[in-house]
């Protein structure tokens, strides 16, 4: 095979793979599971398909979007059907993860490899769990002990499980309720034909009363099945590897393959982002989850533009790395509930979401991009044998350009935030933690610019300062939410804190590496 | 001019700019972390709305670091000096000039807002009217006496006057007050008054008072209390315990008139009145997630001949007579609406500054970027 055909071949291969992923899954049971999954209902203030409810609840209760017990594997929607229509079956599924030995000890169970327990296992201890959870509830979340946190979590998951059937409303009025009862009966009796017939009736009733919501729910199910961001994660990983390998083998063919696949991934990322915007009828960033999606998207966009201009592979590497990491972060944030949640009172403003929030998030994205270019600067200076003055100043030039860009957007975003605050609270600036976080990013970018313009920093220092920008951005993006105070906070996240600390430590390690002086480096290269 | 030039050049240096930025970042970091301990309001006052940050060392308040106002002032001098001696007034530097001028406007506005701005709240129940707002934490001692059946004459003693303790002369009134003891935060409970109580009249004879540590977090309030002796000339009418936590006023008679004593949140009266006509608390269907809060009020200002309805809702406050009224809270089963009242004489400056800086940076950076993009790789 000629290496020059490789890019086209890889692109075709991945496109076929993606098209295949668009198909609805097939189920053997004979029940029209896909039809059921598409059914729109009202929950959490918006109309969504049952599939979304199944996935978010299973994720919140079980921590995963599929349920495995032994060799059997249940999709979220199959699990939901059991919960709604055949509770006895659902109650014996190993659903609840308990990894705290003290909680298990309370039940007189020794910790084993098996971390998952069924509702029936826990039912005898329901009273005790509730009692302990009520006690834990009286302690502030950040002051709870490990046991208190675990038992509190377990109790809230048990409540979610038990209340699932009451959390949504059918569309289409009285006729729907009748069909729904028939669906339930047929399912319990194991009669696929009766189930499918009643489901058809229900689908028709819903489609007549709410045609627009009905078709939207169908698309949302498709979105859920396709999982565009999951596919992006795979693609970004491939792009990263190919770009990296292109420095060793088939430079031209691998480099071009990587860039084409980067474009494909970016296209897919764009489709996913737009689909969310369309389903929700909102600007792209409405909560922490969507901010991660958007930070990734915008960084990749800028990476692609940089790559197009400079053609050195640096844009591709940085773009794929940030795209990959931010989507992984988003994936982990999704376990908090429906990621397309409704906007609370003061946030219910498309104008400010589209201006302030988008600018701030562009600020995050571009500061991260400059930081990753800074990391590349440090790593290539140490490990790349072809590192020279030209590469160094090209990279530094890119960093400077991106820092200008982020200074502009983070300033604009921060001031627009102040103006929003003036519009809604009558004050421009209150030194609230989230405001301070945004201000830190502005100040740091401005610091870098002035250090460079004033001729007070070398190329390498500019790169290192850009890396430090990663720390500031990560802290203001996530750390502020961990403070749990102020008008802006989203809630306490203890696990995320560990990851944030690891990330910051890694950035400081890179800065430390970057500070290795030139003579030491030369001695290491030519011993 | 020449004599001053070397000094101005120093003041205009980029080094000083970097120093200001770095110092502000340190302040922001500590000021944010401090909010966990002492609350947003107290941290803001201590770190940002101060010239010096004091720390308690061996019982003395020692200034340890310059506060936000000092850093802002130095930065402002740096900027002004840069305009005087550093910047080139040429067309190609228009971006720099505009954006830095915008910063001067921003800093100046924020300085005015922080020093002259006032925040208070106005709770109104449906059907009721109010012409005053209350402080969030500052108290005042109010002594009201009947003039006739419709009019009360109210004398108000602010908390900082109580703090000094001792005798307070009140003009045009037949009595003096002697503040025997001021307690910043007291725990008042039912029970025997104990030996350290000074009360000889009123409810103070039936309750116990204990000093507690002052609180500063955003959801707590100090229960400001005082033992107040009322004197007519040299004759003492008795000593009362007045405390914010007591709620209802206590009374005494003097010269055939009835007077009432009460510790309450410091009030600010306005020449206009707001009447709450309706309050709405909208939720998303099938949930308890709030979608909107809105209050329909009647604004009456006899002086300016205004009498009209205004709707206050999320992201849409009422601006009137230099004050902004926004929907802050609600209560009593949605029959009470609480407005935050903000007086900020510099509220327009961020809008102007934002426009100038963004225009300036836009001219500067996008000029750069396009030349960067056109450059051969």
Concise structural overview:
Chain A has 527 residues and is mainly α. Chain A has helices at 6-21, 33-38, 50-62, 76-85, 87-91, 101-106, 119-122, 126-137, 146-163, 173-189, 192-209, 211-226, 228-245, 251-280, 288-310, 314-333, 350-383, 389-425, 433-453, 459-483, 494-514, 518-525, and strands at 40-43, 46-49, 66-69, 72-75, 94-97, 116-118, 169-170.
Write the SSE topology.
The complex is a heterodimer of chains A (527) and B (377).
Chain A: H1 6-21, H2 33-38, E1 40-43, E2 46-49, H3 50-62, E3 66-69, E4 72-75, H4 76-85, H5 87-91, E5 94-97, H6 101-106, E6 116-118, H7 119-122, H8 126-137, H9 146-163, E7 169-170, H10 173-189, H11 192-209, H12 211-226, H13 228-245, H14 251-280, H15 288-310, H16 314-333, H17 350-383, H18 389-425, H19 433-453, H20 459-483, H21 494-514, H22 518-525
Helix pairs in contact in A: 1-14, 3-4, 3-9, 8-9, 10-11, 11-12, 13-14, 13-16, 14-15, 15-16, 15-17, 16-17, 17-18, 17-20, 17-21, 18-19, 18-20, 19-20, 20-21
Chain B: H1 5-11, H2 14-38, H3 40-48, E1 52-57, E2 60-66, H4 68-86, H5 94-116, E3 118-125, E4 129-146, E5 152-158, H6 159-163, E6 166-168, E7 176-183, E8 186-190, E9 207-211, E10 225-232, E11 235-243, E12 250-254, E13 257-283, E14 290-301, E15 306-313, E16 318-320, E17 323-331, E18 336-343, H7 349-374
Antiparallel strand pairs in B: 1-2, 3-18, 4-5, 4-13, 6-7, 7-10, 8-9, 10-11, 12-13, 13-14, 14-15, 16-17, 17-18
Helix pairs in contact in B: 1-4, 2-3, 2-4, 4-5, 5-7
């Amino acid at each position: 095979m000629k290496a020059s055909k490789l890019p086209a071949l890889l692109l075709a291969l991945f496109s076929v793979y993606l098209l295949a992923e668009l198909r609805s899954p097939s189920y053997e049971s004979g029940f029209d599971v896909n039809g059921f999954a598409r059914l729109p209902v009202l929950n959490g203030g918006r109309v969504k398909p049952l599939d979304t409810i199944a996935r978010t609840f299973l994720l919140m209760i079980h921590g995963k979007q599929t349920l495995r017990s032994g060799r059997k594997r249940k999709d979220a929607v199959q699990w939901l059907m059991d919960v709604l229509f055949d509770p006895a079956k659902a109650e014996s599924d190993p659903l609840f993860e308990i990894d705290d030995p003290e909680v298990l000890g309370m039940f007189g169970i020794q910790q084993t490899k098996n971390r998952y327990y069924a509702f029936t296992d826990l039912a005898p201890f329901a009273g005790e769990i509730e009692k302990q959870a009520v006690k834990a509830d009286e302690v502030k979340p950040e002051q709870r002990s490990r046991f208190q946190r675990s038992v509190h979590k377990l109790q809230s998951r048990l409540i979610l499980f038990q209340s699932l059937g009451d959390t949504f409303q059918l569309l289409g009025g009285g006729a729907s309720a009748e069909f729904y009862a028939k669906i339930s009966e047929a399912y319990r009796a194991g009669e696929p034909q009766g189930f499918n017939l009643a489901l058809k009736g229900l689908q028709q009733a819903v489609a007549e009363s709410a045609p627009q919501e009905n078709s939207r729910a169908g698309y949302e199910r498709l979105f859920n099945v396709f999982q565009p961001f999951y596919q992006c994660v795979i693609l970004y990983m491939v792009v990263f590897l190919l770009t990296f390998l292109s420095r060793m083998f088939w430079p031209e063919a691998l480099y071009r393959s990587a860039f084409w696949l980067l474009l494909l991934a970016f296209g897919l990322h764009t489709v996913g982002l737009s689909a969310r915007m369309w389903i929700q009828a909102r600007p792209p960033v409405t909560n922490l989850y969507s901010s991660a999606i958007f930070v990734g998207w915008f960084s990749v966009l800028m990476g692609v533009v940089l790559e197009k201009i400079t053609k050195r592979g640096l844009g591709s590497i940085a773009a794929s790395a940030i795209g990959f990491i931010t989507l992984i972060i988003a994936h982990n944030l999704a376990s908090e509930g429906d990621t397309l949640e409704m906007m609370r009172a003061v946030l219910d403003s498309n104008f400010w979401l589209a201006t302030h929030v988008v600018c701030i998030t562009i600020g995050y994205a571009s500061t991260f991009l400059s930081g990753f270019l800074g990391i590349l600067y440090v790593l290539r200076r140490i490990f790349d044998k072809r590192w020279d003055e030209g590469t160094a100043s090209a990279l530094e030039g890119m960093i400077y350009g991106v820092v200008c860009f982020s200074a502009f957007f983070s300033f604009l975003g921060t001031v627009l935030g102040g103006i929003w605050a003036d519009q809604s609270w009558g004050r421009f600036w209150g030194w609230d933690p989230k405001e301070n976080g945004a201000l830190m990013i502005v100040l740091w970018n401005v610091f870098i610019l002035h250090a460079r313009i004033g001729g007070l920093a070398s190329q390498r220092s500019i790169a290192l300062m850009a890396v430090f920008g990663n720390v500031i951005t990560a802290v203001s993006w996530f750390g502020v939410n961990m403070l749990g105070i102020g008008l802006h906070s989203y809630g306490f996240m203890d696990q995320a804190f560990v990851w944030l600390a690891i990330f910051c430590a890694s950035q400081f390690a890179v800065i430390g590496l970057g500070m290795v002086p030139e003579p030491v480096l030369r001695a290491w290269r030519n011993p | 001019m020449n004599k001053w030039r070397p000094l101005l050049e120093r003041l205009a240096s980029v080094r000083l700019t970097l120093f200001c930025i770095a110092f502000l970042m340190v302040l922001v970091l500590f000021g944010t972390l401090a909010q966990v301990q002492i609350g947003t309001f107290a941290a803001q006052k201590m770190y940002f709305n101060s010239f010096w940050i004091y720390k308690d060392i061996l019982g003395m308040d020692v200034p340890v670091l310059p506060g936000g106002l000092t850093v802002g002032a130095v930065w402002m001098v740096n900027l002004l000096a840069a305009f005087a001696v550093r910047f080139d007034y040429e067309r190609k530097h228009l971006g720099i000039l505009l954006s830095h001028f915008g910063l001067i406007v921003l800093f100046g506005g924020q300085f005015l807002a922080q020093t002259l701005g006032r925040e208070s709240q106005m709770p109104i129940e449906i059907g009721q009217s109010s012409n005053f707002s209350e402080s969030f934490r500052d108290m005042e001692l109010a002594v009201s006496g009947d003039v006739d059946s419709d009019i009360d004459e109210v004398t108000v003693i602010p908390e900082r006057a109580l703090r000094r303790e001792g005798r307070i002369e009140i003009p045009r009134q037949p009595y003096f007050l002697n503040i025997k003891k001021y307690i910043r935060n007291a725990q008042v409970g039912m029970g025997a008054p104990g030996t350290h109580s000074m009360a000889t009249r009123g409810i103070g004879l039936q309750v116990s008072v204990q000093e507690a540590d002052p609180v500063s977090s955003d959801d707590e309030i100090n229960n400001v209390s005082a033992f107040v002796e009322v004197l007519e000339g040299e004759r003492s009418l008795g000593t009362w315990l007045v405390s914010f936590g007591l709620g209802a006023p206590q009374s005494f008679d003097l010269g055939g008139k009835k007077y009432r004593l009460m510790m309450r949140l410091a009030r600010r009266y306005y020449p206009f009145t707001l009447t709450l006509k309706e309050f709405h608390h909208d939720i998303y269907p099938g949930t308890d997630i709030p979608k909107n809060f809105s209050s329909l009020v009647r604004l009456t200002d006899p002086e300016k001949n205004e009498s009209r309805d205004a709707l206050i809702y999320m992201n849409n406050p009422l601006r009137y007579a230099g004050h902004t009224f926004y929907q802050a809270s609600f209560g009593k089963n949605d029959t009470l609406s609480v407005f935050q009242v903000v007086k900020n004489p510099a509220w327009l400056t961020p809008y102007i500054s934002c426009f100038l800086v963004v225009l300036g940076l836009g001219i500067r950076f996008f000029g750069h970027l396009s030349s960067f993009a056109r450059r051969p790789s």
